[in-house]
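[Meeting: bench + compute handoff]

Bench side (C.D.) handed over the final construct sequence. Compute side (W.E.) agreed to return the predicted structure before the next meeting so the bench team could plan truncations. Sequence as handed over:
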Amino acid sequence: MITAEPQRVRRPGGGRRSTSQTDPTLLSDLEALVAPGTRQNPQSPLRRRTCKSTRNLAAELNEGGRQVSHALVAELLHELGYSLQTNRKTLEGVDHPDRDAQFQHINQRVREYQEHSQPVVSVDTKKQELVGRYKNAGQEWQPEKVNGNDFADPKLGKVAPYGVYDVTRNDDWVSVGTDHDTAAFAVTALRDWWRTMGRTAYPGASRLLVTADGGGSNGARHRLWKVELQKLADETGLEISVCHFPPGTSKWNFIEHRLFNHIAQNRRGHPLTSHEVIVDLIANTTTGAGLTVSAALDQGT
């Protein structure tokens, strides 16, 4: 007579057997189906992936009379060492032989201006945002209801925040534009920074250094950007120099990791319901390192 242990519901070995046990060739047949399309990470030999879907694999296995579900195929793939993985941005272009020299040049210019108490600013446009009750990435303890679609409101439209970050003083000016992100708008934001903050902070300034990425409204090949900068130089009497970062290295620009990331954290989960809300969220961005931000709405065209 066979008796079960006091704590066990059934005796050892009881219950329904797994499909891989009742069908001894199932695993080997599945391995044969996925082997031709297998991809493997050379740095992690224990993790493999296949480009075939579990539903297609189940259909191929069932052609021989089996009854295998796609969920079972997923479990068996895990047993065989396969796992779901995402695409990774790991491939880089060929380094230019002068790449390091470019960065050294920018760094040297910044230090030179700072040693002579001349202003150095980093400029860029943060991505355009829809204005209205739309979902904004992030989580809050008391989330709000937002629209089920992301169609732009014809009255509110979008905004383009353009930042001018003072590298030396760790403060920033953001012009929240309601029109297109053009070179004229970019230089207008730079002009607003000088009038409201720059000339007060640097009363004896005769030169201005601007660091920027190589594309967008302040692109290196943008003729209008240079024309508008010349107009600003004529108005202010400043000698304006621009250092553009090489292609693909815009994230090294100071404003990217000293301002924009903090703005994104401050407004995460908040629907940008109006222009006033956007300006308020940007202007109230602070950090433990003493970052201060001033923002204003630019409704010019």
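W.E. noted at the follow-up: Residues 37-47 have pLDDT under 50 and may be disordered. C.D. will use this when planning the next construct.
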